[in-house]
Amino acid sequence: MGDVIVRWVSPIVALVGLLQYWAVAAIRKWLVQGKVDIYETGSVEVGYGGYGYGPTIGVGLTLRASSKSVFVTGIELLLLRKKDSAKHIFRWAAFRKSEVDLGADPPAVVSMPYAFLIALDAPMQLNVLFQDQNTLEEITGQYREYVQAWSNVVEELQMMVFPEQRQVPPEVIARISAFKKEKIHTDMFGTLDRRCYWEAGEYELLLTIATSKPNRVFAKEFLFSLSEENAKHLSLNVINVLEGPISKYLQRPSPPFYFALAEFKAVDS
Q1: Rounded distance, CA 6 to CA 10, Å?
Q2: pLDDT value of residue 26
């Protein structure tokens, strides 16, 4: 009788252990929900015109999944200007290199944004570029007309014959000066200048991360401030946007764009 009991005890113990393993796995899969922990890194990069011709925000993030792996489907920013409660939505536009070369251009774009998996115990580091798509769409049509108008000027210049010389011919300089006085140029300047809403003061950022299965949204708030000097230099980027096509024709380097680096600040609870 004792031998029979012993023979059955071991399989039963093994079966119980196996059932416990599958029970834990089932609970983790169906009952335990994943969570995304958000950690900001570096500074907030505020721009205008450096990527396209609208407002941008660059943010370095470390995202960690807890409890279980999480599938991220989107990241957005809600910007609130504290002094007048003006709001703007920034959608992810690109992933960029994480390495930053101080004193050089902003990080290069690596790829368009895409959904990704954050594996458990495998945090992800991201450098995300966000764009105000609504403002960008408001500018796009007029900017295309501006570029077309400049293309017409280029066609005029190509029909003119200039002697070989190292400097830009006076006729070209005169035609460019005349173009900058035309209505298409002054109107484009006015539109770009009005759409640059970066002003000195404090801003609040609400970062939201959307996940799938389960469909959840994780959020974190930050604060940052822009100085009078920051706002002034950002508004001067309007000139750089307008000069871009002209510099390309003259085979000159593109004008450097200014980006403000603002320190993350915690939101008082």
Answers
A1: 7
A2: 45
pTM of the model: 0.82
Please give the structure tokens belonging to residue 244: 């871009």
Give Cα separations from 240 to 131, 151, 177, 184, 217 (angstroms).
18, 17, 16, 16, 38
One CATH from 1.20.58.2190, 2.60.40.10, 1.10.357.10, 3.40.50.300 for 33-140+169-263: 2.60.40.10
Q: What are phi and psi of 119, to 5 degrees?
A: -75, 150
Q: What pLDDT was estimated at residue 27?
A: 46
User: Tokens representing 219?
Assistant: 């959020």
For the record, the structure tokens of 21 come out as: 């393993």
What is the model's pLDDT at position 233?
A: 96
Instruction: Give the per-residue pLDDT at 23.
Output: 46
Low-confidence ranges of the chain (pLDDT < 50): 18, 21-27, 30, 102-103
Q: Which residues contact 73 (CB under 8 A, 6 or more apart)?
A: 115, 210, 211, 212
